[in-house]
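>> received
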Amino acid sequence: MKRFKKLILLALGIFIPLTLTTPKVNASSFGAEIFCTMRDGGNDHESSWDAAYTYIKKQKGGLFKVSPKNAAAQITETVIREREKFSYCVEYLDNLHPNRKLIRELEKEEKRKEKEAQNRENKKIQLEKELEETNKEISEEFTDETFDRYSY
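>> returned
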């Protein structure tokens, strides 16, 4: 039993570092090459990004896939780390990280619209309640006994 545990620990000790570190470095480096070469070749951002991200996702081992945000960070990190190699690519990095201020403003606008819609709904409900109460008061005020159309 002890021998079996040692064998498992040895296997984990060898394979876990290989699956977690090596492909990530190579994948992000080559992913940066794909992105920068395609952009430099005249391709648009979307097609270059899709190709690089697909490659990084495919090469990343393990149970979890790389998020788009993480892949963009890996490409940026590689371009900055290897400045001499990717000097032509620095101008394209801003497309990997969209304008966060604009995103925040859009989110605020969306929340504001939702709040306005909720306020309108609340006002509508309140007006309906008031109308019901008014109608109820009116109907109580004019019963059949008090309202006789032939009494002058």
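>> The chain has a mean pLDDT of 79.
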